Amino acid sequence: MFRTAELGRKVSKEEFDRQAEPLRIELLELQQKLRAADVPVILVFAGVDGAGKSESMNLLNEWLDPRWIVTCAYGPPSDEERERPEFWRFWRDLPPKGRIGQFLSAWYSRPFRDFATGAIDEAAFDEELKRIQAFETTLADDGALILKFWMHLGKEAQKKRLKSLEKDPQQSWRVTAQDWKNWEMYDAFIRAAEHLIARTSVAAARWTIVEGQDHRYRALTVLCSVRDALLHHLERRRRQRQVQAEAAAWPGTPSGTGDAVLPDLVAGLPTVLDTLDMTRTLPKEDYRAALSKQQGRVAVLQRQAREQGISTVLVFEGWDAAGKGGAIRRLTRALDARQLQVIPVAAPTDEEQAQHYLWRFWRQLGRAGRVTVFDRSWYGRVLVERVEGYASQDEWARAFAEIRDFEEQIVQHGMVLCKFWLHITKDEQFARFKDREETPYKRWKLTEEDWRNRDKWDAYEQAINEMVERTSTHSAPWTLVEANDKRHARVKVIRTVAEAMERVMTKS
């Protein structure tokens, strides 16, 4: 593809000046429209050393309002970044809706270099690119506009550019010994780039190859590409919102205000929850000894995990009044509070709503050796948001694959991941609700929403069944906990955590 590209393209100063002012005005107007829209823009810059990646990013900051631009350039990961899955630092830096994010040396950089230098083979490179595609598809499906620019120079043009920079006292710092080593491997890097672009230039995130020899031609190519893409994307999103508004106004259409159960959840069908033995109990006289034993076991394992740098992520889901809080308290009582964080998940804040729904969970992943407990989690997208109509069918349907990929990255990084569904029967829930209603110090736990959710028990049961079937994988299985008896549930939870920690530490 680079061999057939038109090299040496130029734009005269007169032509550039003629286009510059109206183009800049148009871009600024589009940026203001973007701020009022519900989409982020992600600009990825990659390519040949000296081809103008940094210059292009600087120009966008100069021409547009930089207050609404997030610019990120990545070097080797810090200790904090290495202690989490690789994509943690990219998720953390994503621009919120209405803003533009510029990314240099980002998610393509490491796998590209590894393949070009022979550190990984083509099969491993393709696996890396599949993960990147999944990441970009996840963002694009949520409305993000993704533009990727490969800044290109021919081999001799690159050599000339590097020498020119070296001779400039104010620019010489930009040329390193590594740049010249890369130049010597030019052909290998170009073969890797052709493979990368062929595999990852898709409709939702296409690559634009920009000839970087002439700075005016390069600037106009990038700026016009951004303008054209913004025009198209904003108009497409406007039409989508118009269609959604018209559909919402149609009688019988779920409004997304919590008053509609999606019609695919058919009551009465058997579910995985029906297989649980809800009569299981742990006698009171055995409970204290069993609880103390498992708490002591987890306490020792946490210290060992801390020494080995192994993090633990625990997810608690379950019916209202199923005992999640009680199980979490018995577990955390055994842990070192300095190495522990409990994340109570409620409705997203304005900041969180401006991002992809997984963003707030990615950013909460703990450092090496820490324990992070999620009291409710990312599964809200396929449970409450699905049943109550807060998420569209497209949104919750694609969430299963997005969640599997998220959890796979957690496990592949060497973290312990446990997911618990605490199950109680409908009659037991009613009894616990009445107890809360009649007990002054428990009354605050009961809300009108809890009673409303009971009316949709069957729909939730079907949603839970599909959630378990589609997200209980070999590496991230669900543990279904029979929680009619709180003592049995608490001991089972802590024992399961201990067993999971032992398995991971044995492999390490």
Walk me through this protein's architecture.
The chain is an alpha/beta fold and 508 residues long. It has 2 domains: 13-246, 3-Layer(aba) Sandwich (Rossmann fold); 284-507, P-loop containing nucleotide triphosphate hydrolases (Rossmann fold). 52% of the residues lie in helices and 12% in strands. It contains 20 helices and 10 strands. Strands 2-3-1-4-5 form a 5-stranded parallel β-sheet, with helices on both faces. The longest helix is centred in the middle third of the chain and has 35 residues, at 215-249. Residues 11-230, 283-503 form the Polyphosphate kinase-2-related domain. This is Polyphosphate:AMP phosphotransferase. Pfam families: PPK2.
Overall helicity: 40-55%
Total count of helical runs of at least 4 residues: 20
CATH superfamily of the largest domain, please?
A: P-loop containing nucleotide triphosphate hydrolases
What order do the strands of the largest sheet run in, or round the barrel if closed?
Answer: 2-3-1-4-5
- What is the level-2 CATH architecture name of the largest domain? 3-Layer(aba) Sandwich
Summarize the structure.
The chain contains 20 helices and ten strands. The protein is of the alpha/beta class and 508 residues long.
List the helices and strands and how they pair.
Layout: H1 13-35, E1 41-47, H2 53-63, E2 69-73, H3 79-82, H4 88-92, E3 100-104, H5 109-116, H6 122-141, E4 145-152, H7 155-167, H8 177-184, H9 186-200, E5 207-211, H10 215-249, H11 284-308, E6 312-318, H12 324-332, E7 340-344, H13 350-353, H14 359-362, E8 371-375, H15 384-387, H16 393-412, E9 416-423, H17 426-438, H18 448-454, H19 457-471, E10 478-482, H20 486-507
Parallel strand pairs: 1-3, 1-4, 2-3, 4-5, 6-8, 6-9, 7-8, 9-10
Organism: Roseospira marina
GO molecular function, one term: polyphosphate:AMP phosphotransferase activity
Pfam families: PPK2 (PF03976)
